[in-house]
Input
Amino acid sequence: MFNPLPLVRAHLKQSPVSSLALAALIALAAALGVAVSAQDRALRAGSAAAARPFDIVVGAPGSETQLVLSTVFLQPASLELMPAGLLARLATDERVKFAAPIGFGDSWHGHSIVGTSADFIASLAGTLPEGRMFGHIGEAVVGARVPLQVGEHFLPTHGQFASAEAEAVALGNDDHDGDGHDADDHDHEHEDGEPAGEEHHHHAEVNIVGRLAPTGGPWDQAILVPIEATWWVHGLPVGHPLDAAATDIDHPDPDGIPVGPPWDEKLLSGVPAIVVKPVSFSAAYGLRADYRSAESIAVFPAEVLVQLYGLLGNVRDILAGLSIMTQALVIGAVLVAVLALTVRRRRTFGVLRAMGATRAYIFSLIWCEVALLVAGGALAGLGLGYGAAAGLSRLVSGKTDMAMTVSLGLPELSLAGIIILVGLILATVPAFLIYREPVTRALRD
Amino acid sequence: MTARLDRRQTLNVIAAAALFTAYRPRPVLAAPPDLRIPDLYGARMAFSDQAKALTGKEITLAGFMAPPLKPDVKFFVLTRMPMAICPFCDSTADWPRDIVLIKTRDDIDWVYFNVPIKVTGVLELGTEVDDETGFVSEVRLVKAEARTL
Output
């Protein structure tokens, strides 16, 4: 039997537009399926990675989903405070490796300022590649993607506060010396006065003393301060006894206050969330059970995520079903089009037969053409689907600050494989219909 | 003649390929012994003789899937009783010391806490620190597969 490929190539070259159009149809249909599946996996992997440092989250009674979204993904929401003693109880529980308070509320240019403890920062991002951990109130470490350098200082705004303070931040950024200016700047702020209606002491400047390694999660955009700083600016007890400098009426100076555990249970203030690292699997479940009470809820972020995955999975299944139907429709349409195009080439086939080509040759000629179109389309669809999922991921990453890596895995490759396989089988249909035609009838038309 | 053979061969190859991808070899074994979690413990939370004898062997345990501790991982925790979600119960008194860590071969299909499941896997006893989470576990089933009843 002769090689049909030269003729296949010649014909594809002769009608590039229709060939490309047919392959493109298949590519688009395949891309839809590939993109849905790859995107779903990227979203799961990204959110699972973001939730990894959070073993148990304890919060005030309310929505578990809200608590997890606020803590893991730093989505702003107003969370209730828990009773003050809870943090001390958790921190000294023997089943707990560490219990870290998480205090949200303040922000700088859209970056959340979160009060917490050094334990949590170490478990979130490991050791600091740049600078050092905060040592007292007035110092901060920043996430990998916060546009502030070590040595700079900034002025927190409370929530989405006035632009007057934002200007003060810009001024503060020009000052790069970064040391020994604390007291002066404090006084300066006082003279400028605070925006009308501002009740708290949100004027304290904060120095950046360290930068975290990238975590790939939303916390890369956060500015982390000691939880004591969060309490201090609100005029709340800070969990430690105050020294003489801190209680000075005119210029209270909090630098002498220690930060981090152990806290004095009687001097603690409430926090909206506590991240707990248990020592063992059974401790994790025991803590979850014990701290679900009238005054708190305890939840594994995974519980909420798995529920979300369930919903996502349903959406994905619907989209996947639609994309399979699309693929079936497209493959059917392509076959019809091929059939129509092939019928117009009956004369050519007749001439080939008259020249001595066997029926098998005609069969393999048509089959190869259709197979090439389908296989080429499906492979292009893989690439196209990957591109679409990558683009979509970048969009979602931009909105959520969650790193998402799109990859083509077994599900996507087997999807393309199935399309190719079905195409190869169905390609026999036009081949079968044409190859049997008697030479005389083909030549007569 | 050649044509017929060719087509048939082609179809055979395609059919063989399809069968090959659908077929997953699975060794046929004698059914592993059926246990419940309390069977693993003797007096005072010490391991039972039966549990010690079955260490390193494949067993089947019945129980309930506890709420997921981590998403997208290949382990879950098996509990003797469903993790209490009924506000009227207080069954957590002696809970959850007798839990079994299940390390699965494949990705987990999470089922609700109150659906009874059976897990087959190789029994491991003794303290182990999990690489990924740093958590300590005492009893494990590894290379496990779970199914709902």
User: Anything to note?
Assistant: Chain B has one domain: 30-148. The mean pLDDT of chain B is 77. Chain B has two helices and six strands. Chain B touches chain A through 36 residues (CB under 8 Å).
